[in-house]
Amino acid sequence: MSTLKEQLHQKCVKYVQQRMDAAQQAIAEAQQAANNDTKSSAGDKYETGREMAQQETNRNLTQLNEANKLMVALNRISTGSKSATAEAGSVVKTNQGNFYLSISAGNINAEGESYVAISTASPVGLKLKGTQAGDSFTFNGKNYSIIEVL
Questions:
Q1: Which alpha helices (H) appear in the chain, and where do they start and end?
Q2: For the chain, N or C: smaller number of CB within 10 Å?
Q3: What does pTM read for this prediction?
Q4: pLDDT of 66-90, one tens digit each?
Q5: DSSP 84
Q6: β-strands 136-139, 142-149: how paired?
């Protein structure tokens, strides 16, 4: 049985891979649409269609690049490390919910509990980073008490 950190990490990797796959599929579709667009007597229509396809390709290339950055960030995280202080790769259990400090990937369920995968650069991630069990802080009017750092 894999550890909780490994499960959360794998689910984040899967999330990023799905984003990468979707962006690559959209790029391929936009390029195919541009290639299939034939020049008609209305020359401007042809150029407009090709330009729109190029803009779609560029937008998806940006999304693919962002997903690649997320994957690089995930690859830097060690799932085997243990620290009493919250850092990238830590699981932090609080009275307001459970967090996995990695990338912003939203809600993840593992071992029957819900976790929120957040970046250490996010506002709440910055508050959590460096905390230990027993610490507390206030964020958006809510008081957070650190129960456990794994």
A1: 4-36, 43-75, 123-128
A2: N
A3: 0.88
A4: 999 999 999 999 988 888 999 999 9
A5: S
A6: antiparallel
- Please tell me whether residue 1 adopts helix, strand or coil conformation: coil
Q: For residue 108, give every residue at least 6 positions away whose Cβ sits within 8 Å of its Cβ, in sequence order, or none.
A: 8, 11, 12, 100, 114, 115, 116, 117
Q: What is the DSSP letter of 149?
A: E
Tokens of 69: 């950055």
Backbone phi, psi, residue 114, to 5°:
-100, 135
5-40 pLDDT, tens digit per residue, is 999 999 999 999 999 999 999 999 988 877 776 555
Which one, of 92, 150, 88, lies nearest residue 119 by Cα?
88
Other beta carbons less than 10 A from residue 90's beta carbon: 23
The two structure tokens encoding residue 127: 């508050």
SS3 call for 74: helix
Q: Which of 31, 16, 101, 107 is nearest to 63 (CA)?
A: 16
Coil/strand/helix, residue 98: strand
Start-to-end C-alpha separation, the chain: 17
C-alpha dist (Å) from residue 96 to 5, 15, 106, 147: 19, 24, 15, 10
